[in-house]
Specification:
Largest sheet: none
CATH class of the largest domain: Mainly Alpha
Structural class: mainly alpha
Helix content: 55-70%
Order of helices and strands: HHHHHHHHHHHH
């Protein structure tokens, strides 16, 4: 999958439902549309995509859909045309403004994911309810597999977010928002993988193993408390 602008090969603009692609209501303001686009672009841009290499082709396809949705909804005139016709292909060329899909896409590809946009998004996203919801959903979906969870939760970094994520997950288990997952991978394996990825030394790995368990394996107290609550409910 090419991640350089010069290597891009584009087909015709994809046929999409712009509001669905950007996950916004038809009443969304232009500022809300811009914010939704930046979020979607950061998630699906092939150059920033956190999934496995083989998933980058899918990311490229998705990013084209995101770019096309923004081309329509990001311009008030094109948006009005689309709202009236329901067709993206009829909404791109407006009056004397001839839309060039290749030029537009290359511009979005080059500028959608910059240091400034990533920094701004990271500041707003980390610690938000949206991030928390994504973490809890990923934890349940991937049964506590933290490698997959970090791939799913945007702009997450195990070297930075491990303790914070563990706290969020344990709190959610206490509130019975999620069910504790007994992942087969031990916390030592998680820390070893973490050290390998981020170049930690052997001594730091040993030190890390003495820490509390990772979110892959919530504390036994969480399991016991959950079990006791379920027992009480069944007796009630």
């Amino acid at each position: 999958m090419p991640t350089n602008i010069e290597d891009l090969e584009l087909d015709e603009p994809p046929n999409v439902e712009p509001y669905e692609v950007l996950a916004v209501e038809k009443t969304a303001t232009q500022d809300q549309i811009k914010t939704a686009y930046r979020k979607a672009a950061l998630k699906w841009h092939p150059g920033a995509h956190l999934a496995k290499p083989e998933d980058k082709d899918a990311a490229h396809t998705k990013f084209q859909e995101v770019a096309l949705a923004y081309a329509v909804l990001g311009d008030p005139r094109r948006r009005t045309r689309y709202d009236n016709t329901g067709r993206t292909d009829d909404s791109l060329d407006i009056d004397d403004d001839i839309f060039n899909w290749g030029d537009f896409y290359r511009a979005q590809f080059a500028n959608a994911v910059t240091e400034a946009t990533i920094s701004s998004f990271t500041t707003d996203y980390k610690g938000s309810e949206e991030e928390r919801d994504a973490l809890l959903q990923a934890y349940t979906k991937y049964k506590g597999d933290m490698d997959k969870i970090y791939q799913q939760v945007m702009v997450s970094n195990p070297a930075v977010d491990e303790d914070r994520f563990r706290g969020i997950l344990n709190e959610a288990i206490e509130k019975e928002e999620i069910t504790p997952q007994r992942n087969k991978a031990r916390s030592e394996d998680f820390l070893d993988n973490l050290a390998e990825k981020y170049g930690a030394t052997a001594s730091s790995k040993k030190k890390g193993k003495k820490r509390a368990q990772s979110p892959e394996e919530p504390p036994e107290e969480a399991f016991e408390k959950t079990a006791k609550r379920k027992t009480k409910k069944s007796k009630a």
